[in-house]
Write a structure and sequence with these properties.
single chain; alpha/beta; Rossmann fold; 5 helices; 18% strand
Amino acid sequence: MGQFRPEEYSFDTGSVRIAVIAARWNAEITDSLLAGAVRTLARQGIENTAIETYRVPGAFELPIASQRAARTGRFDAVIALGCVIRGDTPHFDYVCSETTRGIGQVSLNENLPIAFGLLTTDNLEQALVRAGDNDENKGEEAALSVLEMLAVFNQMSGAE
């Protein structure tokens, strides 16, 4: 699969409100993911006032916060951002697995696009590359994914 190239995409999503939920754990990484997501939303014409950012302690809290955002009825989509770096114990596997499952479950249960912006890397260097100010920024990809899903939903409902 090729890389997302933000400058190649333009989505007609109408007037949308987006919740961006970012984990505080590994803040050096998640702050960069958050910046990439917000920068991409702005580039795609989403007004700053249409984006609400929330911070949660870690990746494990992303699903419940995404569910809460979805259930407010105030948002058309959610972008969940986090970073889990492999350590010496199985904790990494449990957190990654449950966070992934939870985000997917919330998206299906709430019938709402939730972008999966969870980095799961073997080391800090890999995370830095995927969160850098470059074409690899997964926060940018998450924002583009949620915008594309909103555009697809608009097409399905006959809004376009």
